[in-house]
Request: fold
Amino acid sequence: VDLSFSSEQDELRAQTRAYLEEHAEPTWPELAELGWTGVSVAEQDGGAGLGFVEEAVLFEELGRALYHGPFFSTIAVTLPALPSDLRAEVAAGQASWTLALGPLVSDLDSADRVAIVGGDGIYELEGAKREVLSTTDVTRPLGVVRGGEPGRRLADAGALVEIRLRALTALALEACGVARHALELAVEHASSREQFGRPIGAYQAVSHPLADAYTRLELARSLALWSACCVAERDEQASLAAAAAKAAAAEAAVEICETAIQVHGGIGFTWEHPLHRLYKRALWIESFLASGTQLRAEVSGVLLDARRDPAPATKTPVAAGQGG
Amino acid sequence: VDLRDTPEEAAFREELRAWLEESVPAALGGYRGGEERFEGPALRAWSRSLHDAGYAGLTWPEEYGGGGKPYTFQAIFLEELARAEAPPHVGVIGLGMAGPTIIAHGTEEQKSRYLAPILSAKEIWCQGFSEPGAGSDLAGLRTSARLDGDHFVLDGQKVWSSFAHIADWCVLLARSDPEATRHAGLTYLIVDMHSPGIEVRPLRQLTGEAEFNEIFVTGVEVPVENVVGEVDGGWDVAMTTLLHERGTLGFALQASLEVQVRKLVALARDRGADPILRDRIAREWIELQALRMTNVRALSQLVQTGVPGPEGSIAKLVWSEANQRVTKLALELLGPDAPLAEENAPYGGYWQYQQLRSRGNTIEAGTSEILRSIVAERVLGLPRSR
Reply:
């Protein structure tokens, strides 16, 4: 068992972070140029032929940077529904997508094309009117589509299983990126801001909540990495892992942002400070697709209602003696 | 990133599981911790059979009779032992703390004298660090070690010492230089628990059991060759012991929480749970998976770099609070039966005992307050609070 990143994956993270610190709002073709839109697209379709674990690194870093654009909706959500020629367009930066998983559609302001679920299939939606709604997190708008006709059939509705796992896991990873950023800001502030002649981080009333924030973050991150691994390897634990990861990471991100705001004092409550933007993204993640309460209901259903307990997560060739 | 056991790990796990299935004596099954850690000849025999099968000192170097295996094997061992609800080796203090400290800092004579009987459970060890006036602030300890010719004379009192009532040896930290302050002037000694002047008194705890002891030390003579490391240089040696205490702890804790959560789920299936309790059960299952994957991350780091990652430092903190919530949740599921005890309670009073015992979890082996300060200062780099 090994949950650590390879040196190539660490390198990818460093490059991603450095790029996003330089470029606040990269365009879709720019992301394609970097190879980010084709990470898991097959090499014959112009992609890198890598997997979800590499994409996981990107989701986490894009969350940290509060990236505004159709990456989540295209790569986490729509990609598994796209046939090979359309995946090639994504890898080449010629098209971005979003998929209407519910009445409120993500990234409708920036995605080039829209897909919908109808009957037993997923289709491209043609000729629809888009209405982008205002959202508290201005970097991740939601919208509604009206009218239009189903066009090309993209995939069977069966693809929705993988889509949901990828989307939940990507949101968990983004939440970890958001939370890490907020925690870093809070630690920096607590180390430099002085009151009563000492840095406020020397007071345990400040430092212990930050220690708890770190703890919550590392736990959430472990779940998100586990889930990414399960998704990449199509592990049978993937649906439990994704539900666990999204529930824990979204909640951790919201709470860590709240701790960070509190530790910052007055400045943390201002519009000019970046914390509120991280906080609003965390709240967006918590509510999108399924809330923590809903996801935990799924988990308890498997634990308490299924005929047998799920097998432990550690995979071994031995089936006997597990469960129960 | 790889979720699977390596072929070697899988083979080890399979063999161990089969061995446990046929080897755990019926009298020792359903291990629940507490005083069961010390009880009787059956436990000694069990510990010996663990040794004979090669499972004692898995990560110790082979030259000292250990298995020379990587930490991943120790993790698998602890996981499978807990799943089988089998008690651990009776010599846990020797195996996990005293032994590794002697391997790191001891003389060749000490290694050849003390290590083998730890593995075979022939000799039991305890730890004499905490004192009535020195708990979290260990450097404030006052037990004195006065050099007199070829031996030290020890006077003082130690407390919270598990296994002291059955121990043959104690790793004891004492102040050898009364002029020095704090971390300087401490010496790490191997003390024969059968020496004249040693008196062990059990400390009855709120569960009614006595897992811990006070050790009264009055004029106890300890030969100088029993010093581990340098005279007056005991602090660094003691830190090795504590590092080992926390280093190998994560997987044992995870494995024990796994058993608790599995029993909690069985209890909820048995008795039914409303949607609010179901939500809380799901939370605890998720927390367990998070702890387990955090341990895997810490272990991956340890195996790759030889240095434990920062994730490891939170395992004890997370486990202790999770175990407190899980056991209390179980009492809620028991409803009106919760106040019953022992044979009058469902499941023989298992949950009532576990819930009370869990209150010690956030105090023993580093209080949660100390652990939070460690995370704040050493992991996050916040300014020191004292």
In short: The radius of gyration of chain A is 20 Å. The first helix of chain A runs from residue 7 to 22. Residues 59 and 187 of chain A are 23 Å apart (CA to CA). Chain A has ten helices and nine strands.
